[in-house]
């Protein structure tokens, strides 16, 4: 297939300048309003007249009009391969010309857009800011983002996650370099390790964590600045979900539920899940048989997703009893729950957590030994 218009655009070409003007004239108009020669995705007039606009054609229409707005008055092409939307917004946030809070809100609005029309409206305002700041964007990647924009599309969450990972630059944090949200000492720690109940934004941040309960990891904009998991450059570029981010997301949600309304810190280093549940059993806050049944469901979880679901049912009981938990250990255990036992048994395997069998055995021993001797 021939390249997209923005991939071959040359600023000094008179035809290209007229074409950019035609693209800007298409802003706010229906797909099919642009000169057909500027489209790579082709569709027949019969299809358009019947109202059946393919997703690819509609996405390219939006991308072309955005490119026209962005390219206006620029001496060099604004399309730059490899600069995803999240990376471009991160650069905008740090350029000093736009309030970081304003960019945060715009990113949230983009990720929360309900349909392609709303997303296009937010993007038009964004590309004008990128143009003024002299920043570029990968329009081919944006085209694929737009084409996948639909809540029923399985690619939707992956695209939003890529925006968030690029915006927070978690791959840079994993490489030992401060990201855009690490502006003070100690902010490289996991959220539960640096949490301070009296901090000005503590209540809002806990609410953001609880709001992520029904969201895929990396798709809740309010949580992007709270992640500290290491991700690979590939995961950040493509939005692929890795085990570290998945585990941290689940633990952040659990901590948000656990810490809600509590002045005492609910993260306690050294208090594993089995010990915490054993103490709960000895506190008479919950029936012993009911707790054992719930704990048994946790131990027999078939994967990390089911385990996180059972833990969300347990945490309110721990919260009611003011029983803290080691969330750093829990993060490692959640990540290890889906690690095959034969992989975990390989000695010298770098950064490989314990496997499910070892975790289950440790939790079970701690639960029964603590329950037998609550003191």
Give structural notes.
The protein is mostly helical. It contains 20 helices and no strands. The protein has helices spanning 5-8, 14-25, 45-49, 55-71, 85-94, 100-111, 116-133, 139-147, 155-168, 170-174, 191-194, 202-211, 233-238, 243-259, 273-282, 288-299, 304-320, 327-336, 341-344, 356-372. It is elongated, with a radius of gyration of 25 Å.
Amino-to-carboxy terminus distance? 72 Å
Secondary structure class reads mainly alpha
Provide the low-confidence segments as ranges. none
Q: How much is the radius of gyration in Å?
A: 25 Å
**What is the helix tally?**
20
Quaternary state of this entry equals: single chain
Q: So what's the overall shape?
A: elongated
How much of the residues is beta strand, in percent? Answer: under 5%
Biggest beta sheet attributes: none
Number of DSSP-assigned strands:
0
Indicate the percent of residues in helices: 55-70%
Report the order of strands and helices. Answer: HHHHHHHHHHHHHHHHHHHH
> What is the overall pLDDT average?
90
Can you describe this structure in just a few lines?
The chain is 57% helix and 0% strand. It is mainly alpha-helical.
